Amino acid sequence: MNEARTAIEAHWHEVAPPEVVDSARALYAWMPRQRSGALPFVDDPYDARREAHWADAARVADYAAALPVDGSRILDLGPGDGWPSLPLAAALPHTRILGIDPAPLRAEVCRRNGARLGIANAAFAVGDGMALPVRDASIDLVTAAASLEEVQDPEAAFAEIARVLRPGGILRASYQVWRLPVPRFETITLVAGVDSLVYTYAVRTQDPPRERRYVLVLPADGEAARLHAEALVASADARRAYGETLVDAASSLGVPLLERLAPLARRSLVVELRRWTTDWLVEALRAAGFSDVRATVHTGDLARLFARPLIARRDAEALSSHFEAITRALGEAAAQQPGESMVTAVR
Ligand SMILES: C[S@@+](CC[C@H](N)C(=O)[O-])C[C@H]1O[C@@H](n2cnc3c(N)ncnc32)[C@H](O)[C@@H]1O
């Protein structure tokens, strides 16, 4: 983790030497909700006037269509707050879905969401993609949404997924294609955690393909809360990328803010994650024992393209009664379209 540290990283190691952790402990163990508590279906009933709802419903239909005809056992890796496990369980009531996430808070939130939605065929357990608590060849479909790249050792997770899938079983996953607009960029985020406030700094590099994320866990009151709120206001005017605030060493939200927050921090953490391209992922899955590996377009993107003009023309609401049928058709069609961001691998 020493290679080419940025100025902000060098400062971080000086003023708040970080503990090296995995992504579950760095991020998902303290994040109160995923996607700001506005997950379509899980947090908000489907609404045809909202683009994200078309995208998510089509992705759920895509995952559902990936289940082998005679299959009923699904494992959802890294479900976060129950996505896609909960909408998938509702769409496929004859199946049994097990969601496995290493962050105990996530498994608990998934269980609470499942109970609130009255879903009885989805269960959630704490576990790691690199050592799945599941018998060999006992699963028909593994789903993973934006979770494979959170695992410290992706090849170990691919081997585990190959182990638990029965012959002919399917892995269907979405993933982030690592293609940065510049060779390196740095961002910060300021968010509320569980009983805490959080300041994170991330540096992403194209070569080597890596993301390092630093986290300061702060008290939710006093001077830390004042500085956090002040910085939040300042960050509203700054440029953004990937939904985060862009910074560099000269930014007031970088070194100067870090120096003021560091003495107040309860914990300082860092996680380093490997990133990948589609070619790398396809090869790694083949090497793990998958016979047929195909990268496809992102189903959500396709559904957004379809829904955007309808929503703009205020025509989407009139289609509400056809929302399920149309998103199903979109999901099934997208799964067949060669592209990037989603992958199907046959065991
Ligand atoms: C970006 S979130 C995606 C959550 C959800 N699938 C969604 O799409 O809303 C990544 C999830 O992967 C989980 N995760 C992190 N490390 C993991 C590991 N080693 N094995 C399985 N899941 C992991 C995180 O705890 C988190 O819930």
Give a nutshell description of this structure:
With 347 residues, the protein is α/β, with parallel strands linked by helices. The chain folds into 2 domains: 7-30 and 179-274, no CATH class; 38-177 and 276-346, Rossmann fold. 34% of the residues lie in helices and 25% in strands.
Account of the 3D structure:
It is a single chain. 34% of the residues lie in helices and 25% in strands. It is built from eleven helices and 14 strands. The strands form two sheets. A seven-stranded mixed beta sheet has the order 1-12-9-8-7-11-10. It has a seven-stranded mixed beta sheet with strand order 4-3-2-5-6-14-13, sandwiched between helices. Helix 3 packs across helix 11. The protein starts with 6 loop residues before the first helix and ends with a strand. The structure holds S-adenosylmethionine (SAM).
The CATH class label of the largest domain is Alpha Beta
The secondary structure category is alpha/beta
Poorly predicted residue ranges: none
SS field, number of helical segments: 11
* Strand arrangement, major sheet: 1-12-9-8-7-11-10
Protein topology:
Layout: H1 7-15, E1 19-20, H2 23-28, H3 51-66, E2 73-77, H4 85-91, E3 96-101, H5 104-116, E4 122-126, E5 139-145, H6 154-164, E6 165-174, E7 184-193, E8 196-205, E9 210-218, H7 222-235, E10 240-241, E11 244-247, H8 255-261, E12 267-274, H9 278-287, E13 292-296, H10 299-312, H11 323-334, E14 342-346
Helix pairs in contact: 3-10, 3-11, 10-11
The structure holds S-adenosylmethionine.
